[in-house]
């Protein structure tokens, strides 16, 4: 592979590396850490390079859940240590948009005071599924619910408004 390197295009069965000089796809294989092997279209090894996505293989996934929201901001600790959020799903049974806010904290968040690292909109009367693709939380994973989009919002959700909240993590 010569010339400037191109970009990585994530596809469902792995990665496709595209060179800016030669747009033929190549594949990258590895275990998720350290080095990966880049192979050409014909399967021949082109190079061994540092992994641009140093994420370990997924195993031991756990989940934090709220079966039915209480009439407050539902501050919850999913994981009290560093981790990666993989997936969020729930059902918003209310007629208003609700926001699931994720925090880089090892303790329950103070919704409206702590600053979330992610805010996910939960559309009204909808099943919501968010693939967080291993989003890294260096301290811990915690979350809360509010009907305010602003970081400082503290308006509580109604009891039973959000059902089946599941936050999967490793």
| SSE sequence, one letter per element | EEEEEEEEEEEEE
CATH topology of the largest domain: Jelly Rolls
| CATH architecture descriptor text of the largest domain | Sandwich
The main β sheet shows up as: 5 strands, antiparallel
Structural class: mainly beta
Q: CATH first level of the largest domain: which class? A: Mainly Beta
- Backbone shape: globular
Sheet-strand content, in percent, reads over 45%
Q: Rg, please?
A: 20 Å
Helical residue percent?
Answer: under 10%
Query: What is the rounded distance between the termini?
Result: 36 Å
Describe the protein's architecture and organization.
Helices cover 0% and strands 49% of the residues. It has 2 domains: 7-50, no CATH class; 62-169, Sandwich (Jelly Rolls), CATH 2.60.120. β4 and β5 form a beta hairpin. The strands form 3 sheets. Strands 1-2-3-4-5 form a 5-stranded antiparallel β-sheet, with no helix packed on it. A 4-stranded antiparallel β-sheet has the order 6-13-8-11, with no helix packed on it. A 4-stranded antiparallel β-sheet has the order 7-12-9-10, with no helix packed on it. The protein is mostly beta strands. 22% of the residues are buried.
């Amino acid at each position: 592979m010569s010339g400037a390197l191109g970009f990585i295009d994530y596809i469902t069965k792995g990665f496709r590396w595209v060179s800016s000089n030669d747009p033929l796809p190549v594949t990258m294989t590895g275990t998720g850490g350290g080095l990966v092997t880049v192979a050409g279209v014909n399967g021949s090894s082109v190079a061994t390079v540092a992994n641009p996505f140093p994420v370990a293989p997924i195993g031991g996934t756990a989940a934090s859940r709220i079966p039915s929201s209480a009439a407050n901001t539902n501050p919850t600790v999913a994981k009290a240590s560093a981790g990666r959020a993989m997936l969020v799903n729930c059902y918003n049974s209310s007629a208003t948009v609700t926001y699931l806010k994720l925090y880089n904290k090892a303790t329950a968040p103070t919704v409206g005071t702590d600053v979330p690292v992610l805010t996910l909109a939960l559309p009204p009367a909808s099943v919501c599924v968010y693939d967080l693709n291993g989003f890294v939380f260096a301290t811990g994973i915690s979350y809360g619910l509010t009907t305010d989009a602003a970081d400082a919002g503290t308006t509580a959700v109604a009891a039973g408004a959000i059902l089946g909240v599941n936050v999967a993590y490793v």
